[in-house]
Amino acid sequence: MRFLSVFDQNSPTPAIDPTRDRLDSATCTRLSAYLRAGVRLMGTTQKVPDVLTESSTPIVPISIHTDGEYVWSMAVAYYVETHRISTGEEFLVHCASNGWTVPSLSFAEVEEGLAFVNASRPTP
To answer: Residue 67 contacts by C-beta under 8 Å, 6 or more apart in sequence?
Structure first.
């Protein structure tokens, strides 16, 4: 499994380069639906502020989802939907190869995803 993030890897705090690639409308719609259809591994009502705005209001969801190969926080879906931030070509190709449909996961695959999240404790 791999963790998918839209945050810059070289930043000590969550940050997104404002010049990062943006998605076209059709890709944004397909990708958003894919991300939202992921199997929820960990749910929470907690939210964090949007790092691309000046507001400190918690608005970005951070529940954790998977498709069996990638694990992401719902922050990824938020930034795709709200700012059209790209997840990068590799994940877009992965989604397209799945026909833009999250595969059904077995109980063992869900357990593997939970173990991955617990071992890595990713930043939303």
So the answer is: 34, 38, 39, 98, 102, 103, 105
